[in-house]
Amino acid sequence: MKATAVFLSVVVSVLVQVALAKYAVGGRWVFDLVLVGVAYAALQGGALAGMLAGTVGGLLQDVLSGGIVGVGGLAKTVVGCLAGVVGTQFVVARPSARAVIVAVATVVHRLVMVGLQALIDLQWIGVSWGSLWVETAVNAAAALVVFQAAQALPGVVARQRFRGRSSLSRRQW
Fold it and tell me: pTM of the prediction?
């Protein structure tokens, strides 16, 4: 996966996350589309692409959220690397299997974030398991849609090109 494709997936996911932030429940985001973008880049391009996407996406999200800059970047870098390693070690081709990886990545991401916050603040905040399961379900559903669309898009484009060529050839006669 090229660096431009990694940056494109991260930028699109950040923009969609910011656009949908007004639908957050109680001021907290119950979905993390940047994490879905990081996992997409990692599963498409491997561990290095996942680390790059995680670093850029996490830092962008940290800057936009107003929290401690670097915590989300580190957590998403770790998750992106792990998702890339899993994606390269196992053949994960089906969108449903990739959605499961995103679900696991969501849980790991939240646990890493809570752990890092506990280290920084020197107090254990705890994990809100209810919101974690909701976020996991929403992220997995979004990932399923994204991976299905990414799998179907080349076929749609090819059919459109074929239709365009066939209609042009008919007009010449």
Answer: 0.84
